[in-house]
Specification:
Helices cover 32% and strands 39% of the residues. It is built from two helices and five strands; from the N terminus they run ααβββββ.
């Protein structure tokens, strides 16, 4: 093979192999702070000996998102979420008002969860 053809083949191979890598880099999961809150609620309940089985925060119009950047009790908090959630525990399923404080990115974790009694 002549020199230009070899260079052209190498360039074509590089493009073919690099394309899937670039596509994979763009499909990273988007952080979901509400999912962090749901996982945190379950973990806290388990740690405290609670009977919480599932939590699903409503992502519709009932969701209130207060963004701020404060240190509360030595813990950085970036967002407060107030919403309704479908909650299931030993008592059954119910719809409850909940509050979750989230540390934001890069911490990307919930730091506080509470169900507001009705």
């Amino acid at each position: 093979m002549s020199r230009p053809e070899t260079t052209l083949l190498r360039l074509a191979a590089l493009v073919l192999f690099a394309t899937p890598l670039a596509a994979g880099a763009q499909t990273r999961p988007v952080p979901d702070p509400l999912a962090d809150c749901e996982r945190f609620a379950l973990a806290e309940s388990k740690r405290d000996g609670g009977t919480l089985k599932s939590v699903r925060i409503e992502r519709g119009d009932s969701l209130i998102e207060n963004r701020f950047d404060k240190t509360i009790g030595g813990q950085q908090v970036a967002t407060e979420y107030i919403a309704f959630a479908a909650v299931e525990d030993a008592g059954g399923k119910r719809r409850a008002r909940v509050v979750c404080l989230h540390a934001g990115i890069p911490a990307n974790r919930a730091v506080y969860w509470v169900e507001i009694p009705q």
